């Protein structure tokens, strides 16, 4: 029975949440094999190393062809997605190598990584395997090898650095000092706000939908303790954000990074913000919606000079200018208490389906059999069963539709910032609450006036109506 319940919960929540994960998941491509193409002034050599669990990982080291001595090195840790190939970061690797660095890019693991399962700890061990491989390369100074992390890699690289003194420095691009669930919620609600939505859909519906996925275990690493990890990082850290980052809050995160690092006694950090740049510090022609091929002007130069300084005893000291203006603030998201957990939500949903659907079905069966029972109330139970069922089904359907739309949601026509589909579900909820009160009165008056079976039928409907009221408040259906 427990297995059945777990399966039902997983299927229901999967239907509600689709493939939501911590950061937006990039579609995986076929991993690159063989040497990556680089300009003639650079070299690209294939390497293999061992990651978490003994998994063999493959990559390429891109470096200047002509050098005057051992080079600093950097291992690039990509963003989300299973099996992301090394050439996804080839632009960064080429530009950093042109600035005098030996750069390791590698095919990301797909083993043990998917939409609903990932481990930053395992990815950190993979990254440390890359550090060991790059430190062992001829022509690389083993004391000057660090980590660079993009998006999801911005959680992974600091975690790896906190585990090993072999990491000389850390660079994060579009990184987060907040849990993934807070970042992802900001990502999705900001897109809805740009589309004209506001109110309880965002403040309650979307937030609780994200928590539901985390409760059900379908939002991997949702509450990863990013600030705690940063508090254990002792290496110099460079944080880079594009001012048009639509996936990570570029205004909220730098102060959180500074607070966490200083709490651990680390003041050797530098933050920089690039105008006209997107989440990955690439140029963007349309405010972050489309990613250009080129890196933001000055970004690669910054990385090259900063690494040379940080690895030569010139570590920066709290170099953090004011972050860019951020149109919408992110909000903290805590785990759900037991009464709003995934199990409680599943139980409520099943109650609504059974109680609200059973009322008209029983009436239909009676009519087919030629049996009639005088109703104690004609309008209230019928309205409660119809409106309650429609609201209970309409809420997850609409929220899933918005989530499936990804970074370009269309919430529909809006009235005072409230999308009409959301207003429709809210109207159904209000009607169901009013009908629940009428049904409760009818059920109380029915004592002794109707058969026991009819009282049980009405009692189940009243119970569902009573549960429906706090459920609707929680989801924002009874709030502006």
Automatic annotation (TrEMBL):
One Pfam family cited in the UniProt record for this chain: Peptidase_S9
Keyword Coiled coil: no
Signal sequence, renumbered to the chain: 1-27
Example GO BP: proteolysis
Entry's Gene Ontology molecular function annotations: carboxylic ester hydrolase activity; serine-type peptidase activity
InterPro entries from the UniProt entry: AB_hydrolase_Est10, AB_hydrolase_fold, Peptidase_S9_cat
Keywords recorded for this protein, A-Z: Membrane, Signal, Transmembrane, Transmembrane helix
Ranges of residues in domain Peptidase S9 prolyl oligopeptidase catalytic: 123-283
Transmembrane segments annotated in the record for this chain: 342-362, 383-403, 423-444, 456-477
Official protein name in the record: Prolyl oligopeptidase family serine peptidase
Organism per entry: Actinomadura syzygii
């Amino acid at each position: 029975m427990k297995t059945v319940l777990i399966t039902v919960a997983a299927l229901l929540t999967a239907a509600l949440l689709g493939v939501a994960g911590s950061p937006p998941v990039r579609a995986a491509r076929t991993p690159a094999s063989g040497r990556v193409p680089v300009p003639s002034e650079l070299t690209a050599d294939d390497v293999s190393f061992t990651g978490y669990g003994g998994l063999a990982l493959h990559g390429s080291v891109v470096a200047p062809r002509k050098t005057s001595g051992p080079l600093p090195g950097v291992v690039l840790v990509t963003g989300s997605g299973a099996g992301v190939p090394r050439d996804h970061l080839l632009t960064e690797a080429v530009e950093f190598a042109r600035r005098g660095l030996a750069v390791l890019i590698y095919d990301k693991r797909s083993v043990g990584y998917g939409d609903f399962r990932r481990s930053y700890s395992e990815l950190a061990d993979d990254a440390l395997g890359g550090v060991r491989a790059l430190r062992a390369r001829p022509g690389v100074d083993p004391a000057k090898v660090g980590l660079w992390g993009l998006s999801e890699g911005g959680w992974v690289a600091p975690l790896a650095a906190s585990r090993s003194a072999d990491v000389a420095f850390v660079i994060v691009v579009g990184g987060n000092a907040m849990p993934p669930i807070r970042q992802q919620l900001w990502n999705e609600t900001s897109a809805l706000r740009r589309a004209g939505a506001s109110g309880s859909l965002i403040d309650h519906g979307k937030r609780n939908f994200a928590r539901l996925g985390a409760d059900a275990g379908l939002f991997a690493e949702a509450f990863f303790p990013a600030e705690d990890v940063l508090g254990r990082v002792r290496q110099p850290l460079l944080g880079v954000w594009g001012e048009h980052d639509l996936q990570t809050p570029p205004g909220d995160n730098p102060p959180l990074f500074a607070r966490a690092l200083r709490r651990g006694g680390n003041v050797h950090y530098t933050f920089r913000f690039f105008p006209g740049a997107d989440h990955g510090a690439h140029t963007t022609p349309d405010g972050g919606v489309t990613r250009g091929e080129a890196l933001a002007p000055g970004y690669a130069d910054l990385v090259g000079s900063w690494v040379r300084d940080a690895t030569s005893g010139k570590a920066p000291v709290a170099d953090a200018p004011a972050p860019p203006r951020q149109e919408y603030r992110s909000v903290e998201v805590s785990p759900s208490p037991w009464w709003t957990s995934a199990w409680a939500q599943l139980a409520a949903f099943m109650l609504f389906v059974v109680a609200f659907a059973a009322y008209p079905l029983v009436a239909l069966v009676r009519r087919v059999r030629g049996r009639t029972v005088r109703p104690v109330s004609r309008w209230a139970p019928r309205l409660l069963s119809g409106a309650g069922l429609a609201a209970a089904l309409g809420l997850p359907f609409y929220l899933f539709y918005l989530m499936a739309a990804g970074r370009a949601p269309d919430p529909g026509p809006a009235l005072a910032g409230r999308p009409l589909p959301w207003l429709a579900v809210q109207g159904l909820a209000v009607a169901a609450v009013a009908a629940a009160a009428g049904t409760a009165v009818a059920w109380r008056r029915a004592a002794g006036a109707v058969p026991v079976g009819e009282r049980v039928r009405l009692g189940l409907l009243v119970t569902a109506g009573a549960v429906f009221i706090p459920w609707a408040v929680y989801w924002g259906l009874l709030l502006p």
